[in-house]
């Protein structure tokens, strides 16, 4: 067996661990950014709940947006076609948007 080979004679794939994770950041409305290394094939829900716990936020009060579209927590970075270094925006839900009719 030569140096750098496994018992089956093949070189170990060191890139596999790098490829299986992606560097992502979550950016809040106030500009604060948190960086993560996250598995490409794991649901983003785990990333979002971790972010909310770290920031002491209510998970249900935050909307996560990527490329202008709201992200479903059941999706994975692979399904969303995310790349290394991509950023997800975390925004507070806003109620309202309508108008009030005031009669005098």
UniProtKB/TrEMBL annotation:
InterPro entries: Rad60/SUMO-like_dom (IPR022617), Ubiquitin-like_dom (IPR000626), Ubiquitin-like_domsf (IPR029071)
Every Ubiquitin-like domain range: 22-97
Entries under Pfam families matching the protein: Rad60-SLD
Protein name per its UniProtKB record: Small ubiquitin-related modifier 1-like
UniProt gene name: LOC105179883
């Amino acid at each position: 067996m030569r140096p750098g080979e496994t018992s089956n004679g093949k070189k170990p794939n060191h890139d596999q661990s790098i490829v299986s994770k992606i560097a992502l950041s979550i950016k809040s409305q106030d500009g604060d950014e948190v960086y993560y290394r996250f598995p490409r094939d794991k649901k983003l829900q785990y990333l979002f709940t971790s972010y909310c716990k770290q920031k002491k936020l209510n998970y249900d009060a935050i909307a996560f947006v990527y490329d202008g579209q709201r992200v479903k927590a059941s999706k994975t970075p692979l399904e969303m076609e995310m790349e290394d270094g991509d950023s997800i925006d975390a925004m507070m839900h806003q109620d309202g948007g309508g108008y009030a009719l005031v009669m005098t």
